[in-house]
Amino acid sequence: MRSIIYKHGKPTQVIRNSSAIQSEENGNNLPFEIHTLEWLAKNRKNQDAIPHKHSFYEIIWIKKGKGTHYIDLKKHDVKDNMVYCLTPGQVHQLNVDKNTEGYVICFNAEFLYMAEDNYNILLNTGLFHDFAKTSVIKVHEEMTKEMDSIISQMLKEFENFFLLRSESLKGLLKIFLVYLNRQYDEEKNKNFETKNTLLVKRFMGLLEKHFATKKMVSDYASDMAVTPNYLNEIVKKVSGFSASYHIQQRVVLEAKRLAYYSDVNMKEIAYGLGFEDIAHFSKYFKNVAGASFTDFKKDLQYRI
Fold this sequence. Notes:
By secondary structure, the protein is α+β, with helices and mostly antiparallel strands. The chain folds into two domains: 2-190, Sandwich (Jelly Rolls); 195-302, Arc Repressor Mutant, subunit A, CATH 1.10.10.60. The chain is 45% helix and 20% strand. A hairpin with a 2-residue loop joins strand 6 (67-71) and strand 7 (74-78). Helix 4 (144-159) runs antiparallel to helix 5, helix 7 (195-210) crosses helix 9 and helix 8 packs across helix 9. The protein is globular. 25% of the residues are buried.
């Protein structure tokens, strides 16, 4: 965990940059967590003491309570049955009354869609990566019972080590996100779509189709009739990351999927992803993933 300086108004405040889900505290190695706000207040009372950001996705459901939630310098009034969907890198600080009730769900991208094609849930529904604004959803009264039931099941699965625990949590999280998406005001979201956000969405769509064969920003820039520098600039301005970053992350995600869910070796994975030189693939993977392909494979034996 490291700290960076963040200027909010006149004072300079320190933002905690949490780079990993803290599941190891409970002997859990899943890239997923779910807790009640009451549990967090008791066990991580300093977590929201200062503005901070995460490298993972976070869903905060305020069932009952009052307070304020600052997200990327914008103040949101906390109200009953409000859900906040936070994308990695967003700076936020939640200040609520001590009697506030609710839940916090944290997960890495690969946890949700490494096993199957859940890519659209994260990138194309508007819940996350809605580049123009933060998704704040008012839970419909008629949906509360069903969503409460899903939350209860997730808590039970997370707190116990049942067979196929990880797969069950992935399925429950996906259903929960589907319920949220049904309540998301798409018409309101459309009002925020600009020329830049549309260009980024088009780029992400092309990337999903061609990541195995096209790994240069210039490849996508040519398809979109813009310059590589312009594409990199707009994608970074809208999403917070350059086009090259998104390309690298998508390629490595696919490599991880193949390593996790198939018996193919590194050479076969490299060739399947368009790398003719296995040494080049090995270096590419380590630079992006932060660990060698061999170490990643070894770590799989500890996954649930």
